[in-house]
Amino acid sequence: MDNNSYWKKNLWILLFGTFLTGIAFSEVIPFQPLYISELGNFSKSELSLWSGVVYASSFVVVIFTSAMWGRFADRHGRKRMVLQTSFGSAVTLFLMAFCTNVWELLILKCLQGFFDGVIPNSIALVATSTPREKTGYALSWLSTGYTSGFLVGPIFGGFLVHILNIRVSFMVTGLLLFSFFLLTYFFVEEHFAPDPSKLKAKKESFIKIVKGFPNTRFVVWILIISVALQIMNNSINPLITLYVKELMGNSGNISVVSGLVAAMPGIGMVLVSPWFGRFGDKYGTNKVLTLGFIMAILFIFPQGFAPTVLFFGVFRFLTGVSNAAIFPSVQTLLAKGTPAESTGMAFSLNQGAQAVGICIGSLMGSIISSIWDYDVVFYVSALVVLITFIVVKWKVPELRNGYKLE
């Protein structure tokens, strides 16, 4: 069957499904420290330590399993991977509602990391079922879906926790992911023909996997960009509430204001992401990526000397605009720069690169803010983006000159 006959249906179903997934994952993350405090009698320092360990544990597992799942997707199909990861995540998160101690929660978080990959596999499925000339448009819309979910999730989760309790929030999360599993199983189409050579192939090292791509150097640079972008975002995100508290003079409705400020990047990304996708399909994805890098540098740096919360919120919104240019562009370039039979592996490697960036960024932000202050984190994050931009423009001709990747 021609891709044109079903790619739009896949896109809208997976867009809605990744929206549900974004809600599911983001609605419980802000309240994990509260849940951990219910699972034992911890001091303030112990609670901080356990919160960090539990948060990081799933990403550590992702680093080691992403290539394995990518290989599986290229052998058996991306729809099967979406089904496995959504079902496994649904069961794991539902079971978190019944933890009796923090060790059980830690084990389940590691298991969640093992089944992680719902969104990247959905991206890979859309990328491989969409005509190449429409890839940027489709992936930009898909990013709008899960970004909107991550935006709505904390508000929805806060409502659940306030009205009911944290354990019910985990149950609802599991049910949302199970509904995505059902949507994908019954309505998403993939006409996948496995490559016999891949089915018989032995497990390969990371180096051999990367070298197997037709344009190895380009893929490696895209992975490096992904690491840098996650360092940029995750060095800042854990500190937003504390920075808002400082800007407000430790008074006022800090939690509400912090929630609104934290939502600003998501709002900015949702509003402009499809526009950047159409612009990239027409004029070149490399141009959109370049614009995104420049905007990120200009918008992140001033946040370090924000005089008011309003100033900070405006620039967080503008950071979302820059993210709308950067993140879908990276995904589009990865899809166009790899053959269809290896797209699952490419996106899984990208998922692993993002996990590395998340771990580095969170640790970097905490260390910098403890040695100096919150403002220095923004300056260093802007510097990371600037260095990455200069090196990429220097070393990657496909991004500098706009060579065609199709």
List the helices and strands and how they pair.
Blueprint: H1 7-26, H2 32-38, H3 44-76, H4 78-95, H5 102-114, H6 118-129, H7 135-163, H8 166-187, H9 196-200, H10 206-211, H11 216-234, H12 240-247, H13 254-283, H14 285-300, H15 309-336, H16 343-371, H17 374-395, H18 397-401
Keywords: Cell membrane, Membrane, Transmembrane, Transmembrane helix, Transport
Domain Major facilitator superfamily (MFS) profile: 10-400
Organism: Apilactobacillus apinorum
Can you describe what's shown?
With 406 residues, the protein is an all-alpha fold. It is 79% helix and 0% strand. It has helices spanning 7-26, 32-38, 44-76, 78-95, 102-114, 118-129, 135-163, 166-187, 196-200, 206-211, 216-234, 240-247, 254-283, 285-300, 309-336, 343-371, 374-395, 397-401. The protein is globular, with a radius of gyration of 20 Å. The model has no long low-confidence stretch (mean pLDDT 76).
Q: How is this structure best summarized?
A:
The chain has 406 residues and is mainly alpha-helical. Helices cover 79% and strands 0% of the residues.
List low-pLDDT spans. Answer: none
Let me know the largest β-sheet: none
Radius of gyration: 20 Å
The run of helices and strands is HHHHHHHHHHHHHHHHHH
Q: Give the overall shape, derived from the CA principal axes.
A: globular
Number of strands: 0
Mean of pLDDT: 76
Query: By helix and strand content, what is the structural category?
Result: mainly alpha
Distance between the termini: 21 Å
Number of helices, counting only DSSP H or I runs of 4 residues or more: 18
Classify the helix fraction into a percent range.
over 70%
Strand content: under 5%
Domain Major facilitator superfamily (MFS) profile: 10-400
Membrane topology: Multi-pass membrane protein
Pfam families: MFS_1
Subcellular location: Cell membrane
